[in-house]
Amino acid sequence: MRAWTGKIIKNIRVGEMIACGGMAEVYYGEHISLNRKVAVKIIRDHVDGDPETRARFEREA
Length: 61
Prior knowledge:
Blueprint lengths: L7 E2 L2 E9 L3 E8 L4 E8 L1 H4 L2 H10 L1
Antiparallel strand pairs: 1-2, 2-3, 3-4
């Protein structure tokens, strides 16, 4: 089980990991109150501390 699988972030229940890249991990998710499937992209710890890379991540989002 990955670190985020099974956790709830606000109204999103994080499911299984779809992919893992250099900047982020992507998971299946479910918006609980809307009962809708979503993708959840979570920035990796080593990227979060670098302002330029974080800005790039936010632009992609």
